[in-house]
Design brief:
Distance between the termini of chain B: 87 Å
Shape of chain A: globular
Order of helices and strands of chain A: HHHHHHHHHHHHHHHH
Structural class of chain B: alpha+beta
Distance between the termini of chain A: 18 Å
Oligomer: heterodimer
Order of helices and strands of chain B: HHHEEHHHEEHEEE
Largest interface: A-B, 77 and 66 residues
Helix content of chain B: 25-40%
Strand content of chain B: 15-25%
Radius of gyration of chain B: 26 Å
Largest sheet of chain B: 7 strands, antiparallel
Largest sheet of chain A: none
Number of helices of chain A: 16
Strand content of chain A: under 5%
Chain lengths: 298, 232
Amino acid sequence: MPLSMTRIGVGMLWLLFFIATAPNWERLYGFDGVLSLGEKDLNAFRTISSFSILNWTDGYLPIAFWWWLGVVLAISVMLGLQTRAATIALFLFVSSLIQRNTTAVNGEELVTRMLLFYGCFSPWGDRLSLDCFLRKHFGCESQQTPLIWSWRMMQVNFLLIYAISLPYKFADDIDWLTGDALHWTIASDMWWTRGWMSELTLGYNGVLRKLMTWGTVLVEGLFPILVCFRITRVPITLTVMALHLSIAFCIPGVTLFTLSMVVGATMLLPAETYSQLWYFSSKRMPANCLTNSLFGTH
Amino acid sequence: MNEPTTPPRHQRLILSGFVVLNLATVGWINMPDTVGKTLSQWLDTSSSPTTSYRMKYIGWRWQQYAHIVGLDNRWQMFGRQSRFNWWYDIRAVYSDGRHECSVLLPLPNQSARSISQRMLFDLKERKFELNLYPNTLAREAYSRYLARQFPFHNGMPIQTIRWHLGTEGILPPSKAVQQQKLHTSRVQLFHLNDFAMRHNEDSEIVRSRIKPVANVQSKEDLHVESECEISP
């Protein structure tokens, strides 16, 4: 089930991505867009990789076709319809988008492409999917339990993002250690809405800012470790999700990226947590059972 | 629950190899640059040119694999934070020989936006501008796109896409707390590039970032939509 939740999340994110880029689709990825393939003297291929279906099919297919195809693939992955084929196709499509215009690339494409790569080998369409429903309906359900190596790879690679980025944070900017890093984010016009919640860094003699910076470092640093232990897995995963959701709320420029990290974290929650959250939300379970499930003692 | 079926030995070996390859790829790609340079120097000094070449060729092929499967990302979440605010001021210069007009182009980050544009449709714009920052070639490509989009103004053909870079200092944390404000009161405008759009001329790339072309108190003072003048 956790893997299926990740699949649904990836599909939803890509659907949101296509909706968000719809007005700028031709500008960003079109033949005559911001990195035009027609500017021979400029040699745009110095900034565009040749591994892109969009480049190969230019002149044969309109760019709007690719937008519609992307929407269909994202919905197929989300609903779990022809999941394996849809995942492979979406992976190739996402890679093509990334390599068509490298100047438009943000973190969300990179994180979800990694999830899609492992998703090509994974059984993430075996639960909560139309494929599963149709198999049950027509009585041709597989008797074999699939191998989970690709799921483990996805988890390890996702955790490596935190394990790798934290030392780089310290190496690149001493303010992550001194507790001042978030000051620059809050004062930034590029990422933050100007003047919004400036008290976070100006107030309380800067103590709140330091607590927030160190809190971020602590959560990101402990996540790859604490997620390995049954008792701490759920609390730390939910904390990381909450951290990313708060970033998505505060920093509009990275919303899709931080949501992709939330989607990635869904594969680390145990299946029982989803079941118990589901029962709790439908008011069939008392609150103390939920508490037990969150801290792994149930 | 069904028991997982164990695959045959050769399949397990291939799977294990694939797992190790991908994990090693992520590790290799995310090594600090100094490790790669040191390794390259060590290969050059301690082995024959043929061996050194072969090893580097394998490394290059490995990077190519990472690129194709999408594992070539360097994971650096919000590492270095900028110490100043910056923005582009992108204008199109039109001229008919007698009159010259410099027009602020109606681009996402320099025009009025609706809530839906700010919250959803412009999600890529900030990162797009950030990715243009170190890339003059991409700025020139974008300039040509803008010239195609806005070829005329009041009957005058486009001559140049002019890029300026506006900057505003951010006060360091301790000073910001003392003064209870986030930014310095000095906004500067630097000339970044002029990309000529006439086909018989090469683009002129101007770098004059040392001397600011404008010093004002606030960002709004720089926001002039259009400036026109008559040539003598």
